[in-house]
Amino acid sequence: MSYLPVKQLLQTEPGQTVTVKGWVRTKRESKNAVFVAINDGSTIHTIQAVAEAGFLPDETLRLITTGACVAITGELVPSQGAGQAVEVQIADVHIYGPADPEKYPLQPKRHSLEFLREIAHLRPRTNTFSAILRIRHALAFAVHKYYNDNGFFYLNTPIITASDAEGAGEMFRVSTLDPLNPPKTEDGKVDYSQDFFGRETNLTVSGQLEGELGALALGKIYTFGPTFRAENSNTTRHLAEFWMIEPEMAFFELEDNMNLAEDFVKTVIRYALDNCADDLAFLENRLKEEEKTKKKEEQSEMTLTEKLRFVVDNDFERLTYTEAVEILRNSKPAKKGQFQYEVSWGIDLQSEHERYLVEKHFKKPVILTNYPRAIKSFYMKQDDESAAAPGPTVRAMDVLFPGIGEIIGGSQREDNLEKLTTRMAEVGIADEAIWWYLDTRRFGSAPHSGFGLGFERLVLFVSGMSNIRDVIPFPRAPKSAEF
Amino acid sequence: MSYLPVKQLLQTEPGQTVTVKGWVRTKRESKNAVFVAINDGSTIHTIQAVAEAGFLPDETLRLITTGACVAITGELVPSQGAGQAVEVQIADVHIYGPADPEKYPLQPKRHSLEFLREIAHLRPRTNTFSAILRIRHALAFAVHKYYNDNGFFYLNTPIITASDAEGAGEMFRVSTLDPLNPPKTEDGKVDYSQDFFGRETNLTVSGQLEGELGALALGKIYTFGPTFRAENSNTTRHLAEFWMIEPEMAFFELEDNMNLAEDFVKTVIRYALDNCADDLAFLENRLKEEEKTKKKEEQSEMTLTEKLRFVVDNDFERLTYTEAVEILRNSKPAKKGQFQYEVSWGIDLQSEHERYLVEKHFKKPVILTNYPRAIKSFYMKQDDESAAAPGPTVRAMDVLFPGIGEIIGGSQREDNLEKLTTRMAEVGIADEAIWWYLDTRRFGSAPHSGFGLGFERLVLFVSGMSNIRDVIPFPRAPKSAEF
């Protein structure tokens, strides 16, 4: 039997016989009728099915409970009630799978996000999580569409890697050796030459270095895949497994890189605004309710969609790290001693500093550039010495968002072999470890740039959620790998 | 300085000053002029830049060698030579990065695919690999577009997992424990409770089970992510790390599943035909040359694009496993004893059998269904007992392609809790191991189906390559994890 998803059914002209398949959200009985709200995941909305009291056999009625899966056939008629244009006049009900109200955890009441995290296998059946996942899908599609429209090629960089190129933190080891009795070398170390790949391997922390190989052949590439950090930190901002988008472009200098980052993030957010209005409206209300529990001064001045429109409609503020440090040193909180960490040129800016710049000083997204060399990665292009900064800087850029902090980090890449290897020696990376990376500077080196955007941070921003574990279907974190 | 990619430049009206940035493919000097062919990865084609003999300083001319990166500015003029509409009359040359002809491995001559695999960091700079990677991109985009257009939601299932649900083979262990001295339990086993996730974890072999959770909430979902097999097999068909597409649909039965699989694979191949004509033409010629080295009887009857059109334009042949076994038993090779493995009901069909059906008997893609239960996974829906098969069968389907064999494997899923757990007990899977999966059959169970398509097998088919290591940028295989 052919049928239409609820999303289409709700836009169908009344007057025809239809079948709706989905899960019961609520059942309501009045003296004269029974009302069943059905959702199938295609939209945040339910379609209402109605039967006169007594029409359905008791046996059937008893099985129509929250969570049960049903197929209901009947005429699509103009709805009598408010809130929907059409409803289904029930002629026949088939129960695919019941859901015992004594056992089914998702009863129609408010559940805490913490509780729902415990049942991540069922939470996509709730309004909140289905809305988040539909928005996550729309954003992912917008990412692919943006890069495809702009002449980029999707490049799958390796997940299992033998290089810790970013030096970005602790890594997960990947192995098939006997974990209890691994083979050993003569000097008592694990003999990885006998491992699956004949060497020690880990899960990637970034596809950037391989992405650069692609850009220096295909011109413009992007990655969009999982990356991993074995950091033992249980925060609302970090995951052990998360998805990253990393474009890399030959012939792009720092300013081109900034232009791309700003246009990219605005375009995908605009796509969500244009394509996810219903889900955003639901999450906007959810956020409003949540904010009511906060102190007045912690409540947001803007609603969720106002915040998104604001990002889309305004130019990001661009300034150098050095200029930002000046602003921070002359700021009220600095003078009143309200920053936990004192600001001086050379420090890694803390969340409190970034938030001050974005949320208090400029009140919009900010792109900071030309950071001190000492606090950035070896592969970033060194600036010429200049009087504008007290020390050596690199052509780095961080895009800072309200509430999120750093959402994008990138740079122009060092394309001079000698400067690159000198810097590698300073930070202790052997040339042999990434001989293939250095080859791109040996042969046909080109100016190029790129950045990385943590996809979950984007979904967090667009959905208005506050814990990153709530914007990925099955979060991976210390002591947590269920499902 | 703004500039256009070569792809756009080649379609630009002559008569304006342009800048081309890219890598020198060849330099040719005649008595009167020097011709430089430049490629930037945006297209298989090069743009020609021309200067009168003597115009360029010797120092510059010397650095214009294969692989060097240059920016050339000059007037775009109608080309004098054949093969291109426009060319650049050189006014200025800037050398970004030279490529010493004594050292740069990619000189303009034919390199073996084996050699290029050794320098996977540079091979995207060749015609063959840039064409493959552009086609790979187009196919990936077509996948996302297809599912987005058809109301599916992209679901990121976990990469690190605690369940070996498919039982699909050996897995890679993921750990942060001290590999030399892991903590041990009282009975001398590795104490994984002290590992990062508090339990033993592996890299996923399939996102299907989690995909089912998504489908039974959102209706229609698909995954597109990396999957892993720690099989120690060095073949032209297997990778340790590969990308898989796994759609999963509530309310789809086996026939809906077949319809979707056929429509999906045809649509993405059609997209490649429509959007990658130049790259396909190049690879078609490459294949023609390669086939000339084969014996007559091993040469393909169709060119690459003929083969693709044939798949797109014809209905796939659909038959049951039982019917296929009958055809095979009555086939010439069976009667002449030419099959290595004898055919009888219940065996897992071998490559020779599948190839006979696809390439000799039907001469088109084939969907085999209703396989013996004993050779398929526990989660496949059990058929009602029927006289049409000698033993118990399941609603499985395999899509078989010429030259590739199985490109898609899927099934309707068992939605009956009792039948599912009975089957799990038979094959030795504990209920507790996948309690969350079973919950979907406990609460609101629904008929549903899905399948998996190995992305590299699709790229292999569309590109006409014969080794799967040549259709992924950085292949991972036993003893091989470079780059």
Automatic annotation (TrEMBL), chains A, B:
It is an enzyme of class 6 (ligase). Keywords: Aminoacyl-tRNA synthetase, ATP-binding, Coiled coil, Cytoplasm, Ligase, Nucleotide-binding, Protein biosynthesis. It is found in: Cytoplasm. Residues 133-473 form the Aminoacyl-transfer RNA synthetases class-II family profile domain. GO terms for molecular function: asparagine-tRNA ligase activity. It comes from the Bacteria. Its EC number is 6.1.1.22. Residues 273-307 form a coiled coil. CDD domains: AsxRS_core (cd00776), EcAsnRS_like_N (cd04318). InterPro entries: Aa-tRNA-synt_II, aa-tRNA-synth_II, aa-tRNA-synth_II/BPL/LPL, Asn-tRNA-ligase, Asp/Asn-tRNA-synth_IIb, NA-bd_OB-fold, NA-bd_OB_tRNA. Homodimer. NCBIfam families: asnS, PRK03932.1. Belongs to the class-II aminoacyl-tRNA synthetase family. This is Asparagine--tRNA ligase. The gene is asnS.
